[in-house]
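User: Teach me something about this protein's shape.
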Amino acid sequence: MHRVADFVQWVGRNRHALLFFSLIATIAIGPLLSEFGSNGTVLNVLLGLTLLAASLMPSHAHARVQKRGFLVFVVLAIALGLAPIRSGLGETGPITLALWSAIAFFGAARALRYAMSSRRVDRDHLLAALNAYLLVGVFLGALWLALEEAMPGSLVSGSAPLQHPTLPDGIYFSFVTLATLGYGDILPATPIARGIAVFEAIFGQLYLAVMVARLVSLRIAGETQDAPP
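Assistant: First, the predicted structure itself:
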């Protein structure tokens, strides 16, 4: 029992770092799995673990009951998404991917609120700021895949429809759009897809501008307070 309690406390202390490395692993492993012809099971499991880690973001003490209820909801959503994999019926479907994305955006908002509440630049608040950005990028990738599966032709490669899109394709396009790189190998082709792309590009630029300004101002304020009179 003591070991379990110690482990739970360790997870609580390191939840920001665990979420960060989970997000990085999801982004990095996706292309490797695609290269070796994986069916996406590993990536979907990683996505589920990332979603669970995102649900553990800090909340106010008076919201503990709501947090527990939200955590139960997240666990049920993850189980629903991974059920097709366990039963051999296929991969996670577009509806579940969209549900996971909505939960991740809520987690990103909580991480952002926590990051903005800082009065000094420390590890946890910096990781929370990075996690909010990466959560939006990764789970908008899942949303792009869900959109393409629900409305084929939303994404095109050149002038041809995107053939057999995968989750790594969605995550790749998401981060290319979020960072406004504009490679042009994958393009949004429908009004809904273009609207989401515009939203993602604007969010990516505004987020970086606001967050950098916030961190710089906190750093300057901290140096001013620590300076000898």
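Now, about its shape. The two ends are 51 Å apart (CA to CA). The longest strand covers residues 155-157. If you'd like, I can walk through any region in more detail.
User: That's plenty for now, thanks!
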